[in-house]
Specification:
Length: 86
């Protein structure tokens, strides 16, 4: 998915809708664990949202941070990634 968004391999309106929907529902449909790939992808989505729609960017960033704080707890696992049940 990151490559599709990064290289704009789908129509721009479709990408924007998909990015906004992913960020908007991250608390419910977000990734099960935190990783470098997830962090990179979410950072790219937030930057994309800031470029396209600055009004919704703050809300999107807050949603991603809320998901991050609920999902990732480095003290709970030896590898630094805390898995939660999906």
């Amino acid at each position: 998915m990151h490559i599709l968004v990064l290289k704009e391999l789908a129509p721009r309106p479709t990408l924007l809708d998909t990015c906004n929907n992913m960020i908007g529902s991250i608390e419910v449909n977000g990734p099960c664990s935190m990783s470098d790939a997830v962090a990179s992808f979410l950072a790219h989505l937030i930057r994309r949202q800031q470029q396209e729609n600055t009004r919704s960017a703050k809300d999107g960033a807050e949603r991603v941070l809320t998901w991050l704080f609920r999902t990732w707890a480095p003290s709970e696992s030896a590898s630094g990634v805390c898995m939660r049940l999906c």
